Amino acid sequence: MIHPIPADSWRNLIEQIGLLYQEYRDKSTLQEIETRRQQDAEIQGNSDGSQVGEDAGEEEEEGEEEEELASPPERRALPQICLLSNPHSRFNLWQDLPEIQSSGVLDILQPEEIKLQEAMFELVTSEASYYKSLNLLVSHFMENERLKKILHPSEAHILFSNVLDVMAVSERFLLELEHRMEENIVISDVCDIVYRYAADHFSVYITYVSNQTYQERTYKQLLQEKATFRELIAQLELDPKCKGLPFSSFLILPFQRITRLKLLVQNILKRVEERSEREGTALDAHKELEMVVKACNEGVRKMSRTEQMISIQKKMEFKIKSVPIISHSRWLLKQGELQQMSGPKTSRTLRTKKLFREIYLFLFNDLLVICRQIPGDKYQVFDSAPRGLLRVEELEDQGQTLANVFILRLLENADDREATYMLKASSQSEMKRWMTSLAPNRRTKFVSFTSRLLDCPQVQCVHPYVAQQPDELTLELADILNILEKTEDGWIFGERLHDQERGWFPSSMTEEILNPKIRSQNLKECFRVHKMEDPQRSQNKDRRKLGSRNRQ
After folding, report:
1. What is the separation of C-alpha 522 from the centre of its chain, rounded to a whole number of angstroms?
2. Is pLDDT larger for residue 549 or for residue 322?
3. Between these two residues, 44 and 449, which has the higher pLDDT value?
4. Whole-angstrom distance, CA of residue 552 vs CA of residue 548
């Protein structure tokens, strides 16, 4: 049945959303974490520690569905996540809308369809919150007359980049989502609109995000060198409209939104019926968004990597045949100091401090360079090898002197010979991190989810973490990660489920997901999101795109 929402009613709802996007995002992810904790504890208590395999999991899910069908009150239970709950917002959820309450559709729809409606509703309302924050960035900061006089046009261009283009796209995108909502209170789909915008319009995000390195540097320089700029920004941040949020949180809005939009589509994809048309549009939208996010990440990395490679090249002096460091396809993975063992391996030499001497390693994605640090912040290169010709081996526990020692073999070094180095790290985690970076194909303690195992140790991020080194992984709240390696001194090498990015992070930033059923469910959802391209779905893609345009 068609139940149109009056345009004025829907616009009033959008206007009443009181959260800035930064607030919405924090509330959303914190609620997501808490919901997982409750599910983990509840299911763990019910399962009583029993082992859950794939077939058993499917049987339990079928049983749960039968119970929900037999018990109407459970069908109408509200989902845990109340994303827009705040004093300034009249509505929390899709099913809180007066039109929904009075239409009777909650008595008709199945529980999974209600959850799907909430997921699509969240995408729309969060876009409205995002647009509100973007508008504040432009009207309150960018168009401030005093700020315009302080900033040189080139500084303003670097600081705000193409944010007007980003806001214009968001406005058109939100308008189309609003029109779709107005067609029927039961939302037909939103992913077809997302797909079209990701394919045709979201390139503005790539331009904005690729400028991030220069944007951050310019902002820091302005704060340090222009007192008038620093004072004005502090004054503007105190305005009640900013709700205590810093100017920098507004500048990073586009990057946060494009990554979050991909996760919102993933959430829809988990709810739609398999092999349905809506699954097809969700998969298409997710694939396009993945391409945009990947291009954004590459844009940021390309800017910073080029400058980093030039800086490293200037610091190197070659004792061997010179190796060209700068290459458009090369980037730094890890650098740092290790202790090299020298001399015969006798009990006598093991007792002396002279057994080890310092060396410095630069590991790139395709090359290892081994140096000694010399005066003047320079590095003297005495050996190198292609990364593909490196092998590592951990030593058995041989006492305190050989703690955290591993063997590095260069199958073909700078002299076209095999070379072996016995290296000592400062800690167990540092040793593991070097071994993982030097030989990425080496088998880790736990197997990656890509092996399609039904159970694997997992954690969820409960404190955000910003990577401090190239081999580390930046974590956002509510990220779910598979554990590939753990150290006794508090570090985890993990793989994030939603994008398969790998890296190290402190275990204190996460908490383990203990229940095997929840872990299995997370993996199944991930497999579904990243399923292989279906030829039949590809043939239907253009038809869906045309149908979407006809609906406009």
Report:
1. 16
2. 322
3. 44
4. 7
